[in-house]
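Customer ticket, subject: "Can you confirm the structure for DUF373 family protein?"

Message body: Hello, I'm evaluating your service for our small team and ran a test protein. I'd like someone to confirm that this is what the system normally returns, since I don't have a reference to compare against.
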Amino acid sequence: MESAGGKILVLNVDRDDDLGLKASVDTPIVGRDRCLDAAVKLALADPEEADANGIFAAVHMADDLKSRGYDVEVAVLAGHHTSSFEADRRIRNQAAQVISTVKPSGIVFVSDGADDETVIPIIQQFAPILSVQRVVIRHSGSIEESYEVLARYLKLALGDIRYSRYVLGVPGALLLLLGVLALYHLEVYAGYAILILLGVAMMYKGFGVDEALARARRSPIFTLSLFTLAASAILVASGIVQASHVVQSLDLSLRPPGVSATQYMAGAAISTALPYIWVAFILYPLVMTAYYAVRRSYKALRSISAFAAAALLYYPLMELALFIENPYRSVSLVLMALFTSLAALSLLTYFIYRILRSHQRDRWERARGSTGQ
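Agent reply: Thanks for trying us out. I re-ran your input and got the following:
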């Protein structure tokens, strides 16, 4: 017997795709028997998984509506376990597929949590939601079992690095920061320090820095790059410190006539810090050149270009710093150094380009020859 309103679709959504991840079940799933089979597979794969109970609840709701004379179909959709965007996109595609097949007049949405209910606006694009039924799973029937469940979650939070870095790491860093501030009688800055630390932690997770670092660790040059960049940072810091010492010890009475104290100090600071900063800038391309040369990779030529650019710019920048410190130096020295460096850099770039083009042409010819055979 059909209801006056037409067919009803009882729908359950597994937004994080535990069905596919744990039970290797493909979605969408349509039909009572197929939904029961999927729920059993998920329950066997993970007896503590709440999504299995959500599917059973959807089947139970469909049976109940059918016993009251409604024309009912039951279905299960799934999203994605890593990305909320990908999860919603997959759910939208599956919902369009199921609803175009079943053609319901309305949907009864069965949910086992608030996260799954976030997809309701997506489902409503295809058919009206008649009712939302939330299933509350009773995990334990006694206080002892409740403590056991709580202990299990605590063990997961403290023992799993994915969670312990936030459960223990962030509070630990806060306590350490407050202790250091108290040691130096800087408690007045505690609020700002806490906000900065929490902001860094949220950005670290929100922008996926942890995942990017995990991917980078698999690269053979990650450690090499890390130590090289650390050494470069130390060199830059050393240059800044050395420049500050030189500026503090300057005798401003010795500056050339007509040169302001600010200009004289700026020139002295730049000329002092420049060698440190220059070495810091050429260190990374120099190391990468050596690395790619050992591996006989043509990427070494690109690193040579970066190294040469940094090396050739040192002389004109130093002349410019000395000119700022003493404008009575000949400006032609600065211009000559700049033009000489640019000419040498252009010549080097031209030769590297010719080498790369020749290498690329050889590869094309070899590929064409192998295709012709």
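A couple of notes from the result: Residues 18 and 81 are 7 Å apart (CA to CA). The first helix runs from residue 18 to 23. Feel free to reply with more questions.
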